[in-house]
Write a structure and sequence with these properties.
The protein is an alpha/beta fold. The chain has one domain: NAD(P)-binding Rossmann-like Domain (Rossmann fold). The chain is 38% helix and 19% strand. It has eleven helices and 14 strands. The strands form four sheets. The protein has an eight-stranded mixed sheet with strand order 4-3-2-1-5-6-8-12, sandwiched between helices. Strands 7-14 form a two-stranded parallel ribbon. Helix 2 links the parallel strand 5 and strand 6. The model has no long low-confidence stretch (mean pLDDT 93).
């Protein structure tokens, strides 16, 4: 299969390239600079431009590009970048693939469990409506930008990814150094749910979505059971052999992170109902297993 990937230099994208090539697929990486390798295709999401000739014959597209939600403090300018990078990038890739003949069979479009907003202790799945808050608004617009692809007859899947447990990027890349130093502790009350997925299960799930012709629409990419922040903290301490006695007060997080602290302290208890019903098999169903897999 010929598969094109945006965001191929990111945590998930770079690992997905390796996995798919190991499975024998031809993988194209979309880059925002002049190509320097035969597996690269240029695109400029801000300008709405894609090298269509480079995508000829593509069977599937995995769209993962977007500004990191936790990479910077949420100023008004950076919030606009978070939104625009997702909506403009999706609109650009959708416009391109709907012009191809033949068109790709499937678009697996990156999304996020931020769709649900803060759910507290209430479990939610793909049938639940969008919640409230900045990220919920972003995800709503992000997913809507892929509608023209579905209208053109392309199977569209929205991969609503949770917190990816990995040492090379994402939230855990910031957690591991702190816990190794013995500075890790629960955040705020610790009762908030974190809906997580190991990196290897994330990659397997994306490949599963590419190959599952009957799956369309939103799909939660999380482990079967969310963990509370206190449970995550305890598991990190056990795996790393470090104390986790000092909690981080809510006010300190709000001071350090600004508006983004609402996401850290918020609770999203997600159930991956579609993956469960379609028979996907996780390698890491417990948070401690995922942490050990990340370190390995």
């Amino acid at each position: 299969m010929k598969i094109a990937i945006t965001g191929a230099s990111g945590l998930i994208g770079s690992a997905l390239v390796i996995r798919l090539r190991a499975q024998g697929h031809q993988v194209l990486r979309l880059v925002r600079r002049p190509v320097v390798a035969p597996d690269e295709v240029t695109w400029d999401p801000a300008a709405g431009a894609v090298d269509l000739a480079g995508l000829t014959g593509t069977d599937a597209v995995v769209h993962l590009a977007g500004a990191g939600v936790g990479d910077h403090r949420w100023t008004d300018d950076y919030k606009r970048e978070i939104l625009n990078s997702r909506v403009d990038g999706t609109a650009t890739i959708v416009r391109a693939i709907t012009q191809l003949d033949p068109k790709p069979r499937v678009l697996v479009a990156g999304s996020a469990i931020g769709w649900y907003g803060d759910t507290g202790d209430r479990a939610v799945d793909e049938s639940d409506p969008a919640g409230t808050g900045f990220l919920a608004d972003v995800v709503r617009a992000w997913e809507a930008a892929a509608d023209p692809a579905a209208q053109a007859g392309i199977r569209v899947v929205h991969a609503r990814t949770g917190l990816v447990v990995a040492k090379a990027g994402g939230a855990w890349a910031k957690l591991f150094p702190l816990f190794r130093l013995g500075l890790g502790g629960k955040l705020g009350s610790g009762r908030q749910y974190w809906s997580w997925i190991s990196l290897r299960d994330e990659l397997a799930a994306l490949e599963f979505l590419i190959n599952s012709d009957n799956i369309t629409g939103p799909v939660n990419l999380t482990a079967p059971h969310a963990a509370t922040n206190a449970e995550v903290t305890a598991a990190m301490g056990r795996v790393l052999g470090r104390p986790t006695l000092l909690p981080v007060p809510s006010f300190a997080l709000k001071t350090a992170l600004g508006e983004f602290s609402t996401e850290v302290l918020g609770s999203i208890r997600v159930v991956p109902a579609v993956l469960q019903s379609e028979g996907f098999i996780w390698q890491d169903t417990g948070i401690e297993s995922a942490i050990r897999a990340a370190l390995d």
